[in-house]
């Protein structure tokens, strides 16, 4: 069953909602962003919280990549006589199988069967930007987490005991060292990926076994991240209606606080499970999750089921109790999604085929790759203003060359010199923008004389829900954007956030126009960090127990450039 955007998604389960809503200004909003606009939340709690909402180059010659026979099953493929140089300085470096760090600095565990997931160990050789190195502490923490997943995960005695505990409703009979976090992520693919990564971060910080709800294609788009076990919640989970949990679920942490079923200020029995509702529509009661004293209570609950469509990591960092561990795990705080995303999300073999065939056919041979993500919605007419915003942004920042006046000839090239080539990867639901760009760079010469080719893998027209081929294309395109050298993204889009995080890129962000027919001035700006923006943060200071600007509490958590009330992790330096 598939549905189009604007209707309730099958993956939306019992949280009936429109994927896109119109803002007061009449813009089509992404769901989570629209929800963030709808603050303050519905309920008020005894702790007063007066919400203070903060309003709103590279010179490179790459001959065709040739795979050695048998490379798919054993040694990583080799770029034969690929030449690589720095920023146009002509220096070259020969690549060989040994020069790829297939484990990404120890982020990935060795020893997986390579045939079941080609992308896991091949991805490094497609990345010109090798990315950041994980801290030794993060590497050891990931190995510990893998051991925990094997010891307590599905199929183990500990898992059966924990399920029994859940069925019985008694919180004291399970194995004390096996606590669980079931992550339900839904909505667009970008949201799902960010939400699952954030939930995993929480599992790492709280030593919980991390299991994901396999619906919404979560079981099909990605390989297993943990060796020797599964991250997918098996069928037969005792909380049979867990996929329908919503803001109204009585066992949600927020509702249990509100209804005084739970109290975070007294020591008492804890329930065997709690539902953590951190959707775009979460109330302040739900968002007490981000407070220290609430975490002390939740620490003892054996089973947590979390639903979110948001990148909640910056919210977790507001909790003083997590800050020390966080700093050890991520000395570079803006690399959380960069590392956890590359650790968790390996495209399945089918998607990897889409990615590598496209990359090898259209992007590999160019000396420079530019990604432009144009997030539009099905109902939106093709917009000359948005096209102008893209050209102004890319040309003023030197991402794409300026066009010469029509009728002007190409600059004279020295005999025997080939043109410098730039391949532009455009991703969009619509083809109009890339067709216009392609025509421009064919019909008009550019002062630099470089050859600009424009490519767009698909144009699906409408966002769809529950459609596998749609999701596989979306995942391939997000990943391809992350393989470019320079990235331009659209404000508010989780699709772009995932690409920038995986690629380790600080993109130029196309600002959201006040009015669809007016080009914002400036048209875009450089993002302050590669980490995604949390669209629906709390506006509450847990220590002072009152409303606060949460962009001013912790030095490493600041507001986003594309959404003024959103929060993101930044590197102070
Ligand atoms: N293939 C493809 N699908 C897209 C594109 N833009 C939007 N979509 C679809 O629309 C969804 C948008 O949701 P999401 O990924 O959460 O990004 P966001 O809504 O912009 O935050 C994607 O997951 C795709 O299903 C695109 O450029 N290419
Ligand atoms: Mg979305």
UniProtKB/TrEMBL annotation:
One GO biological process term: cell wall organization
GO molecular function, one term: galactoside 2-alpha-L-fucosyltransferase activity
Ranges where the record places region Disordered: 1-24
Compartments it resides in: Golgi apparatus, Golgi stack membrane
Pfam family, one: XG_FTase
Its membrane topology: Single-pass type II membrane protein
Chain segments annotated as transmembrane: 49-71
Record-listed E.C. numbers: 2.4.1.-
Keyword annotations of the record: Cell wall biogenesis/degradation, Glycoprotein, Glycosyltransferase, Golgi apparatus, Membrane, Transferase, Transmembrane, Transmembrane helix
Transferase among keywords: yes
Gene Ontology cellular component annotations, sorted alphabetically: Golgi cisterna membrane
Top-level taxon: Eukaryota
Signal sequence interval, chain numbering: none
Function: May be involved in cell wall biosynthesis.
Family classification: Belongs to the glycosyltransferase 37 family.
Protein name: Fucosyltransferase
